[in-house]
């Protein structure tokens, strides 16, 4: 598998998980799909296909944004098998193992159609141009911001503003810390190859979670009083934390369920349409525990934890806040995109 870590180890000549510091690669295809089409890719209903793994935290950002903004019919969805093989992400969940719209068996075929001899790894999320079958972008840091700000003509009525202009500096600042210490911090801990590197990452993870917990104690959302991109980015790590990062990545000072503020915040978002209804714990657990054979050689997927508590009352409404600002929640997920509810082992 080209990149089983969900990132690319720094330097060359590394072993499976790298002997050097875990380092996430830069997005290699960073074309943007914009309202004015300045990169050659204008926003258009039905033109592009979002390819995700429901296991992947970076792809899950896009899944959530697409639902909150009501882009399901404008931007179609391909869901890859959570277990990659040596050609990476594949469409083995679809009939005949082919994505029914792109007609391909592996996401790498869309990468190959875009560039020959591409040296980077094949990653999700990816947005593919349906008419040409070519990859447009795998720039996971940019995709959701563009869904929020460039795809506005195709947003549903009542869609929230996930990246409000007056709050962007604050959102960016919060997201920087969330990315470095939380989203990526858990990977740095999980794929550390020496004790000091692991312990530094562990400290970063919990140091930042403590700061965020204090911030969220009196405030329903991270920035302002509505859901923003910052909340989406924190949620995707929190929702995987107890099921995967606590054990598999050794981020085990405490579970999220043991931090009353973060646990209530995560449940509040989970129960908000667009968040829990795009989360598939089966895909998440099978991906991490089966694919990362370097850190879980048996490939055994833990039966726990009990996930049913995700649906218990959170009482965060008492903090006020307006989840969708002047907008409204999205309706139910399309029938074909439904995921199983969180259950008991
Ligand atoms: N493409 C980005 C981030 C997205 C990412 O890491 N996605 C993971 C899944 S969580 C992936 O597709 N990794 C490639 C693979 O597992 O084959 C990067 O290079 O750091």
3D structure, described in words:
The chain is mainly α. It has a domain at 169-337: Glutathione S-transferase Yfyf (Class Pi), Chain A, domain 2, CATH 1.20.1050.10. It is built from nine helices and four strands; from the N terminus they run E-H-E-H-E-E-H-H-H-H-H-H-H. It has helices spanning 57-69, 108-114, 140-149, 168-183, 185-190, 195-217, 229-245, 260-270, 281-291, and strands at residues 48-52, 76-79, 126-129, 134-137. It has a four-stranded mixed beta sheet, sandwiched between helices. A hairpin with a 4-residue loop joins strand 3 (126-129) and strand 4. Helix 1 packs across helix 7. The longest helix is centred in the middle third of the chain and has 23 residues, at 195-217. The two termini are 30 Å apart. Residues 1-4, 6-8, 24-25, 27, 56, 58, 84, 88, 121-124, 138, 140 line the site of glutathione.
TL;DR of this structure?
By secondary structure, the chain is mainly alpha-helical. It has nine helices and four strands, in the order βαβαββααααααα.
* Rg, nearest Å: 19 Å
Low-confidence stretches: 1-19
> Could you say which structural class the secondary elements and strand pairing correspond to?
mainly alpha
Number of helices in the DSSP assignment: 9
Q: Give the CATH architecture of the domain at 169-337.
A: Up-down Bundle
What is the third-level CATH name, the topology of the domain at 169-337? Glutathione S-transferase Yfyf (Class Pi), Chain A, domain 2
CATH level 1 name of the domain at 169-337: Mainly Alpha
